[in-house]
Every structure is written in C-alpha cells, then in structure tokens.
Amino acid sequence: MMNVIGASVSEAAMTSHHETRDIVLPNQTDHVPQVAVDIGGSLAKVVYYTPSEAKGGRLHFKIFETEHIDACIDFIAELMNSARALAPQVKQVLQATGGGAYLFYDLLEQRLPGVVVEKDDEMECLTAGLSFFITEIPYEVFSYNELDPNPIRFEETPKNIYPYMIVNIGSGVSILKVTGPNQFTRISGTSLGGGTLWGLLSLLTDASSFDDMLEMSKEGDNRNVDLLVGDIYGTDYSKLGLKSSRIASSFGKVFKKGERQDKAKFESPDIAKSLLYMVSNNIGQIAYLNAQQHDIKRIYFGGCFIRGHPVTMNTLSYAIKFWSKGDMKALFLRHEGHLGATGAFLKHRSLPKPNLSCAFPSRSM
Ligand code: ADP
C-alpha cells in the first residue's frame, strides 16, 4: 500500500505547460513494485513512482497516443528494468486499465517478460483515482470563471464528498453518479466527446495535433461559422432571456440557401473554436440534466479532452451555472487526464510471497 500522508502537488518549475505535475509523497518508504497504465481509445496514460535519495518519492504522469502503443510499452519496460535493478527479488506488476488493458493484454504480457499484468476495471479505477485526488491532494480541485480576476479558485475538501457526479470526457463521455467509496452507477454518457472533436478537426482544419488545435482556437472567432440569436433576430430575444450573442445553431452560418459556400472562406481557427464550443456546450448541458435528475450539486469533469484549456473549462462551467441558475458547481482537477491510471496505481496490493499459505492477493479497495 502507498503511504499518501502529506501528499502534495509538486510546484517545481516545468519545462512545458503541457506536462502534468508530479505528486510528492514524502512518507512513502517501501519499494514500489508497480507501474499503472490506462489505455483508452485515443491515449494511453502512465503513472509511475520514483524514490528520492533523501526520503519519500514522486508520482509521475505521462501520456502516449494509443496509436503508438509500442512506444508506451517500451517506456514501461524501461521503468520495470530500473525498478528491478533496485529490488531484484520483488516481482514487478503492471496495473492495466481501460479498454486497451483487454485489447493489448497479450502484447503487454509478451513485451514485458517477468512482469505480472493485472487488469483493473476502468470505472472502479476512475472513481478510486478521483476520490484520492479529492480527499488527499490539496490544491488539486478548482472551479473556473473567466470573469474573475483569478479565474482558478481552489476548492477546500468538503466534509461530505458524496454524492457527486463525474463526467469523464475521453474519446467518448461517461457520466457516473458516485455515492460512496467504490459505490457508483454509470447513469449516462454520450458518443459526442473528445474523439468527435479531434476527428472533426482533423477533417475540417489543418491542425496537426490536438494541442495545436487548442492553441489555434484561442485566435478563432466562432461568429464566422456559428449562427447567433442576433443573426436571426437582429437583437436579443429578451422575452426568452436569450442574448443576441448566444449561439442559436453551431455551424449554422456555413450553409447559405441557394448558394454553395466556398470552403476556403472558413478559417481553421474559427472552425476550431466553434467545434470546441459545440462539443463542450453539449456535454455541459447533458451533465446538468443528469445532475438535476439525480439531485447532485457537485460535478467533477475529468478526461484528457479538458487539458486545462480555458475555453473548454469556461464553457463547461458557464453551461452548468447557466442551466442550474448557480445551484450546481463545475469542478476541475489538475490531474484530470490521469484519474483512471492513478486509481489503477493505487489498487496495487503486494503479491503474496511464493511460500505463504494464502495463495491469493486481496483485490478489494
Ligand atoms: P480515452 O481514454 O478514451 O483515450 P482520454 O481521457 O485520454 O480518453 O481523452 C482523449 C481525448 O483527449 C481525445 O479524444 C482528444 O479530444 C483529447 N486529447 C488531449 N490531448 C490529446 C493528444 N495529444 N492527442 C490526441 N487527443 C488528445
């Protein structure tokens, strides 16, 4: 078991803002024999531990594209080799979760000889990882409001964390209601998720990577492709409380009756912004409807789709605030993309020594 007392986010300077910050574990003393991987439809997330010479050690977070799973496995093999050099008598374990734990199971076994590959349930890992971040890590959970001079506001851990909802925005979207430790139901989901955004962007723009697209969208103006309330009314539709700047129809300006628009007229940054709004608004609204139906006030958003991107977080926050009239709260995490992998990492239980009478390790959390 990991000793997580005193765990905190490392505030050391980073070389790139795309990196995910380490977690410092000052009281971890035992050798750590496991690495965890969460292999999803788009990305493979790795969590691993390195001891420090003085005391304790660090959790590290890394991402690979699932398409390049071999590079990810090479990386894991190197980690396993260095850990084995430190403690040759201890069996190394890979805690694997996500669909890829099944899809690539044989490949993992074959490419990691001498390593025990344990499959862990994806949703169990997601909720275990999230609970760890909510309860153990200060300055992890925050709300976001771009109108605030300090848009990021860190949250104190509430006395009762349950019930809450987690909206995990990966390639697709899963919405879970969590009522206690390891007590959850998948109440909803949508296939319009991160994979949809990434796929449509690849078709419609010249963005060569996801982060490129996020960067590009900052300069974009969605009003060049979206049809706004003001485009239809010429003014606000005040009777319904709809401002003229509200999007009436995403991409509604592209099609013009009687004439085919010249595709070259539409700029990639504008398309990127519009698509980001479209997917985020839709997820925000579905999240609100589910929270309302289940009477839940705290909604955590996870998954690599968010990537700490201000427009995405603001759109989700605004949607929750707008639809719930301020009654519900959208919450984000600094390790949003690694919830499942962290949960898998923490699920590790020491394997029994070969000559012990109890042959089965306990797998309960
Ligand atoms: P999954 O487990 O389904 O792979 P993730 O939580 O890893 O889901 O999120 C995947 C989504 O994150 C992608 O569909 C895309 O929207 C977004 N994303 C973030 N970073 C990247 C990246 N470097 N490459 C591709 N997609 C990315």
TrEMBL record:
GO molecular function (one): ATP binding
Superkingdom of the organism of origin: Eukaryota
Keywords linked to the UniProt accession: ATP-binding, Coenzyme A biosynthesis, Kinase, Nucleotide-binding, Transferase
Database matches in CDD domains: ASKHA_NBD_PanK-II_Pank4 (cd24123)
GO CC terms: cytosol; nucleus
One GO BP: coenzyme A biosynthetic process
InterPro entries cross-referenced by the UniProt entry: ATPase_NBD (IPR043129), Type_II_PanK (IPR004567)
Designated name of the protein: Pantothenate kinase
Organism from which the protein derives: Absidia repens
